[in-house]
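Re: the 120-residue chain
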Amino acid sequence: MNSKVGIFWFVENTLVYKAQNAIDLKADQLGFIDSPLQHQVEWEENNIYQLFGLTLFNSDYYNFPRGRVIFNTKLNTSYVYLNKKLFKKYIVKEIKAKFFLAHTNIKFFTDPHYHCFGSI
């Protein structure tokens, strides 16, 4: 299993993400591996967008379309939860590449938790 778990945004035509190897993390009692990364912390405190050449100081993490990748060990499947605005072929392709999902089963879910007020 080479797949990764973590969080992401799509901002100014850029996939901003932070991923961890799923194999390095422990599954919960239901068999899910999830990263402890938090959107708010990575965006507002760690300014993750700077690593991708973006200058979005004093912006709120929830104003941009975002999502999360987790792994279900019982089904050997990666779950990608994302804002419905991101369910576009070129964005999905980039998420698959950055999270090393090419050789794993994947299920995509749109999730109102990742609703945002901004656009892509």
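The radius of gyration is 14 Å.
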